[in-house]
Structure to design on (538 residues):
C-alpha cells in the first residue's frame, strides 16, 4: 500500500513538472519575415547559445520555452540581419576621420569644407572623400589651382565619390615627384593646357598615395569600431569588405577575438601578388565572425570618371574607351591561379568591355568546376549577348548606383547601351539570385535605401516619376532575399545565416515599419530599432 501511494505521488510530481525549455532570449508578437525557402512568416522565436532554436507562433513558443529575457515586439517587423554584399567597411571608418565631401554642389563648397576642417584639425596631411563633379553645375573635373593657393605646403588628397579618382594639390604631387610626363599602366593623369590639373584616375592615384603616411594601428582600430557603430545602427549584421590587406584582415580577426568587434565580416583580400601567395598557401580562414575565402580583383575603373572600359567609345568623349586597371593577361593569369585554389574570385567590372572579358575568362577557367560562386561586382553595363554568361556567375550589384547615376549615365554610354545598364532583373533571371550591397562609402550606408532603390528605382525625391527603367526593378521579396539569404549564399554562408530558421545564427533586426507592405515612398523612412547578433542587442 505504501509503495502504491509513493508511485501515485511520484506520478503527480512528474506530471506537474515544468517541461518548458530554457532560452536565452524569446521574442513574441512580431511580424517576422523568415526568408526561408517558402518566404514564410512567423510570430515568435526562441534563441539559445546564439542560434535560433524554435520559430513559430507566440503561443507555441511561450508554451515550450521560458526565459528571463522576453521581448514583446508589439507587432513590429523582424527580418534576418541584413548583409551588405559589397562595401568598404574599413574605408567607411577611415572616412569618418576625413573631410566629408559627400553632397557638395560645387567645387567652391569643396574648398569651404576643407578650410573649415583644417581650421578645426590643423593636420599635416589632409584627406577627404565624396566629391562628384556630376552633381555640380560645372560638371568638368576640378583643378588644383585653388588648393595650391590656400595650402601651398600641406599635401591634400581628395578622393572622388567612387574611389576611382583623386584630386591632389601640388604639395601632394611633389610627394611622388609627379610631373606632366609621369606614366602608369591602368591610370591616367588629367592635363589642362599641358599642365597637371591634380586629377589622377585609377592606378595613377598610387603615384601620390604610395607616398602618403600609413594609418597607425590605433587609427585603424578607431575606424573599424566607428564603422561598426554606424552599420549596427542601420541594421547590418554582416559586411562584405571588398579589398583588404593582410594587415587589415589580421586586425579585424584580433578585434573579433577580443570581443571589441562584433560585426561579422566576409573579407575579400585584394588580389595583389603578395596577398595571393599568403592566403592561397594559408587556405580558407573561417570563424563565426570572419570568413576569408575570396579575392577582390579590378578589371576597369568607374563610369563617373570615364574609367570604365567600353567596347565602343564614350558617347560624351569620342575616341575614349576607358581603361583596364589590370591588363587581360593579368586577369587571365590571376583567374587561373585562383581557380586552382579553394578561393572565390570577385571582380570589379563596370563597362561592357570589362564585363565581356571577365565573363569569358571565368567561363574558361571554371570549366568542370561547379558551384564556385564566383562573382562580378557591379556588372553595370552588359552587352545583350553577354547576359547569358551570368548563368553560372553571381551578379553582385548595388541598387543605389542606378538611382545615383541615372542623371548622367546615358550621357556616357548613349541610349542603346543603357538598355543593358543597371539591369538587375535581367541579371537575376540568368543566375536566379542577386547579391545586393551599397558600395559604401561610395553610397550611403543605410540598407533601407538599397531596398527602396531596388524596388522603386527612384531617388529620395521620387524621381523619375514611375521609376528608372522599371523593367529591371526587383520585387520586394527579391530585394529582401538579395540583402539576406542570397547575399549569404554568395558568401558560402547560407547554411548558417540569412534567414530566421532553427540552427542558424540569431542575427535579426526589428524595424518600425513593415517594408514589405508600406507605401513605396515610405520605405526610406523605415528605422531599425534593434539590431541583434547571435541573439544579443548591439
Amino acid at each position: 500500500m505504501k509503495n502504491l501511494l509513493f508511485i501515485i505521488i511520484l506520478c503527480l510530481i512528474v506530471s506537474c513538472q515544468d517541461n518548458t525549455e530554457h532560452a536565452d532570449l524569446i521574442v513574441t508578437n512580431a511580424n517576422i519575415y523568415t526568408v526561408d525557402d517558402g518566404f514564410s512568416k512567423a510570430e515568435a522565436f526562441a534563441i539559445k547559445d546564439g542560434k535560433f532554436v524554435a520559430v513559430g507562433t507566440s503561443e507555441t513558443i511561450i508554451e515550450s520555452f521560458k526565459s528571463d529575457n522576453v521581448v514583446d515586439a508589439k507587432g513590429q517587423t523582424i527580418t534576418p540581419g541584413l548583409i551588405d554584399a559589397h562595401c568598404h567597411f574599413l574605408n567607411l571608418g577611415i572616412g569618418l576621420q576625413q573631410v566629408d565631401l559627400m553632397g557638395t554642389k560645387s567645387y567652391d563648397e569643396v574648398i569651404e569644407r576643407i578650410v573649415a576642417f583644417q581650421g578645426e584639425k590643423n593636420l599635416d596631411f589632409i584627406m577627404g572623400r565624396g566629391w562628384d563633379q556630376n552633381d555640380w553645375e560645372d560638371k568638368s573635373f576640378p583643378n588644383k589651382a585653388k588648393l595650391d593657393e590656400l595650402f601651398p605646403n600641406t599635401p591634400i588628397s581628395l578622393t572622388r565619390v567612387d574611389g576611382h579618382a583623386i584630386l591632389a594639390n601640388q604639395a601632394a604631387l611633389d610627394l611622388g615627384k609627379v610631373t606632366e610626363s609621369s606614366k602608369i599602366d591602368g591610370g591616367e593623369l588629367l592635363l589642362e593646357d599641358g599642365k597637371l590639373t591634380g586629377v589622377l584616375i585609377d592606378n595613377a592615384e598610387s603615384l601620390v598615395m604610395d607616398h602618403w603616411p600609413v594609418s597607425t594601428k590605433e587609427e585603424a582600430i578607431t575606424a573599424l569600431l566607428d564603422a561598426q557603430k554606424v552599420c549596427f545602427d542601420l541594421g547590418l549584421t554582416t559586411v562584405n569588405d571588398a579589398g583588404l590587406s593582410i594587415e587589415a584582415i589580421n586586425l579585424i580577426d584580433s578585434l573579433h577575438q577580443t570581443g571589441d568587434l562584433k560585426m561579422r565580416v566576409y573579407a575579400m583580400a585584394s588580389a595583389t601578388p603578395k596577398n595571393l601567395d599568403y592566403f592561397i598557401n594559408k587556405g580558407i580562414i573561417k570563424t563565426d565572425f570572419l570568413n576569408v575565402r575570396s579575392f577582390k580583383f579590378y578589371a576597369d575603373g568607374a563610369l563617373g570618371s570615364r574609367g570604365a572600359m567600353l567596347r565602343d567609345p564614350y558617347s560624351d568623349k569620342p575616341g575614349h574607351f576607358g581603361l583596364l586597371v589590370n591588363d587581360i593577361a593579368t586577369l587571365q593569369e590571376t583567374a587561373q591561379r585562383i581557380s586552382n585554389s579553394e578561393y572565390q574570385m570577385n571582380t570589379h567590372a563596370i563597362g561592357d568591355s570589362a564585363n565581356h572579358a571577365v565573363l569569358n575568362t571565368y567561363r574558361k577557367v571554371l570549366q568542370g568546376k561547379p558551384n564556385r560562386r564566383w562573382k562580378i561586382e557591379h556588372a553595370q553595363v552588359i552587352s545583350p549577348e553577354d547576359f547569358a554568361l551570368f548563368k553560372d556567375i553571381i551578379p553582385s550589384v548595388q541598387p543605389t548606383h542606378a538611382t545615383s547615376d541615372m542623371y548622367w549615365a546615358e550621357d556616357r554610354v548613349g541610349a542603346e547601351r543603357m538598355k543593358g545598364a543597371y539591369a538587375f532583373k535581367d541579371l537575376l533571371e540568368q543566375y536566379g539570385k542577386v547579391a545586393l550591397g551599397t558600395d559604401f562609402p561610395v553610397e550611403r550606408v543605410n540598407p533601407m535605401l538599397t531596398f527602396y532603390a531596388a524596388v522603386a528605382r527612384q531617388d529620395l525625391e521620387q524621381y523619375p516619376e514611375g521609376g528608372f527603367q522599371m523593367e529591371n526593378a526587383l520585387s520586394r521579396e527579391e530585394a529582401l532575399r538579395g540583402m539576406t539569404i542570397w547575399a549569404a549564399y554568395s558568401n558560402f554562408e547560407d547554411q548558417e545565416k540569412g534567414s530566421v530558421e532553427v540552427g542558424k545564427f540569431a542575427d535579426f533586426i526589428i524595424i518600425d515599419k513593415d517594408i514589405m507592405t508600406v507605401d513605396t515612398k515610405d520605405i526610406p523612412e523605415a528605422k531599425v530599432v534593434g539590431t541583434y547578433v547571435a541573439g544579443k542587442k548591439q
Notes: The CA atoms of residues 260 and 324 lie 39 Å apart. DSSP finds 18 helices and 27 strands in the chain. Residues 10-16 have pLDDT under 50 and may be disordered. Residues 92-209 form a domain with the Diaminopimelate Epimerase; Chain A, domain 1 fold (CATH 3.10.310.70).
